Hints:
The complex is a heterodimer. By secondary structure, chain A is an alpha+beta fold. Chain A has helices at 12-20, 102-115, 123-130, 179-184, 197-209, 220-226, 231-238, 246-249, 295-313, 325-328, 336-345; strands at residues 4-8, 24-31, 34-39, 64-75, 78-88, 95-100, 132-137, 163-168, 171-176, 191-192, 257-264, 267-274. Chain A starts with a strand and ends in a 6-residue tail after the last helix. Chain B has a 7-stranded mixed beta sheet, sandwiched between helices. A 6-stranded antiparallel beta sheet of chain B has the order 4-3-6-1-2-5. In chain B, strands 13-14 form a two-stranded antiparallel ribbon. In chain B, helix 5 runs parallel beside helix 6 (213-225). The interface between A and B is large, with 55 and 44 residues.
Amino acid sequence: MGLVKYLKSADLTPWLEELAQENKVFAPRYEGDAVIFAPFDPKQEISIKHAATMPPKKTVFPQSEKLVDFTYSKDPEDLSRVMIEGKEVLPEGTAVVFGGRPCDVRGFTMFDRVYLAEKTTDVYYKARRDNTSFITLACEKPETTCFCHWVGSSPYDATGSDVLATPIEDGYVLESFSPKGQKLLTSKLLENGDRWISKGQEVNENAVESLTDAPDLSRAPQKLLDVFDNMNFWEKAAAKCLSCGACAYLCPSCYCFNITDETTGMKGTRFRSWDNCMSAQFTMEASGHNPRPTKAHRLKNRVGHKFSYYPGIHDGVISCCGCGRCIKSCPVGIDIREIVQEAINHEPAIG
Amino acid sequence: MKDKNHYLPEMATINEVIQETHNIMTFRVTFNDPGVMENFTFEPGQVGQISSFGTGEATFVINSPPTRKDYLQFSVMRTGEVTSKLHILKAGDQIGVRAPLGNYFPHEDMKGKDIVFIGGGIGMAPLRPLMLYMLDNRNDYGKITLLYGARSPVDMAFNYELPSWLEREDLDTHLTIDAEYEGWQHTVGLIPNVLLDIAPNPENCMAVTCGPPIMIKFTLQALEKLGFKDEQIVTTLEKRMKCGVGICGRCNIGSSYVCMDGPVFTAAQLKELPNEL
């Protein structure tokens, strides 16, 4: 067990202010109708009653980030000759993210397997990942769209987190899970938390008890491959889909991106931005050929990737963290849980 | 050790531009940093991401062989935004190169075997580095046959090399076009049909093919008819790619990423993958 501390609710803002002296601190707050992770501002109220509308994905993987700055320069002796120089733009500084949920933060561990792979480490992701600490909030009362326990997690799973904060009456039990987390818990605002440990455990256990039974998803990888060519199955699943991509943009574990260039005058930047596999352009080739020509093909890829292809190459780990945002925010009510279960229960027609 | 930035292109200069056909151009390039050029290694079949800064990147095979390293050669068919921008470049212009990416033709496993190359149109480009590599290591391989087809003689890339290929006694070259054309002295006929006429012996032989999807489809059928097993047929795929290092998530076929696990696959491997070409 790591360090255990207790933080009075009244000291939360001062603690975050203290952390903000050396780090960029992100915390959930209302912006319009949505709760998003924004740079912490002591004058604005933090919203942690429910999981945020958007996960803190952008704190490590920004919606749009610079990869390379390039500049053109003309040869004064021959103006048709343009030299180009490209320079990498690496992120700097440390950050602390307060108030993500266990599902949100566990999502980054699904990124890690891809972005921190030995031979192809993504230096931009790594720079932010290494320099970002997560103070994660355990869930007291999972919502009906929550299914972290289907995918190998729980309302108080600390996987990927540096500190787990369990809310109890008038405060939080804080437990560190990494050296970075231990450092965060050295503040004088925190008191020894030993006598609150059992209170915290009670909250964690109650949260688990409120969950409904989880189905067995161990057959999902093979079953989804079995229905790969069954386009009736996928057309039915995707019938309502608007291809808006909300599911992918709100997903803590969706990591696909696009690379685009922008230029002004003699300067330009190569950006990386979130992309989503629900878009028809995602796989569209210059020839006009598209390996995923319909929304049914594209939904198949999204579900298949999370519950079959990714587990197939990553030790069986499902690349869905069960946060339920894709269910909650889908404008037409598509439920990924139903699709996976239907695939598992699907029996091929005889004859 | 500092991790390599896989997204940062290496700047290169175009030394020579060859107009191959009305819509295919070949670029011969060298890295601006002589040290990079000196230490650059690759295998036949590997690809690179070519940058036209301000427009973007697109994927092309390095179609010069690793045995000839004066320059790297890329052939570009004008199709979309990036390729249109590349087509206005001339000798002396700058491009970005991220290479080598992907896997390569299993030339070690092909040693001691007869080889049949079947290229259609721009599909000849990925076969070229392997064929030249084999010709540069001629004693390691058995009989080498090339069947190269295009719609018409004017659609045929690498025109300037064809006479020397036809002349070589250690290379059995067959050229074909789809329909009669004035002055054409070689075969007329669709590639799969010509292949059946040539009828290479499948025993101890590997077939390497690349071309438009419809040609591949019928070429695979022809090879099967000739007795080639799926394990004896190698092809190379293309998909829309961005990162080229297995991260950005768009070139996957099920669990396999064309940019990392490919672009080279045997027909046997392709049959194992979900049907999403």
